[in-house]
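I had to read the description of the data format several times before I understood it. The format is easy to grasp once an entry is in front of the reader. For illustration, here is how one protein appears when written out as sequence plus structure tokens:
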Amino acid sequence: MIDGQLRVVLAEDSVILRDGMVELLGSRGCRVVATAGTAPELVASVDEHRPDVAVVDIRMPPTHTDEGIRAAVEIRARTPEVGILVFSQHNETVWASRLLADGAAGVGYLLKERVARTDEFVEALHRVADGGTALDPEVVTGLMRGGRRGRVETLTAREREVLELMAQGRSNRAIAASLVVSERAVEKHVAAVFLKFGLRATDTDNRRVKAVLAYLAESTG
């Protein structure tokens, strides 16, 4: 990030949508350092500019199948310091699993039709660039259904809801608002998740991250 501006490489094969997003992000304090209409252009742009985050669509030319997400997996392997935010109308659980195979830090996956506010999208960009996670609830649900359960099966329905929201990068306060419960109730559910996952407090307590990673590992395994 330079001068407080988030540096973004934007991959989108629709010229109209791409130009609109460049203008939108520019008005929200982000700097689009390069745009790409194909997967090879995306990889080359990330190699050249080393942005804070790359915004990637799944289906890009020439076949419009999975070129974009394949490029995202390649970028994550080659330049893990670059955040990846998949922004697509397609919920591809198999490729989401591949993208999250090495951990959820610095990864996001949002569905276009479910992003209701520009602020929500920009906030997700910053979260991913800072090493956080931003996953649409439908993506999380798809990952859960597609994988084995393990420790997740020991959770109550409410504990699982709380963990899903944690995996989306939400704070206890945001989780409480989403579930219409008290923040204290959320804290109790989070503590129960830590206990059932065998995560004890340490001097450098990052149990929240470990719980999310364990959850995603079981959901994508």
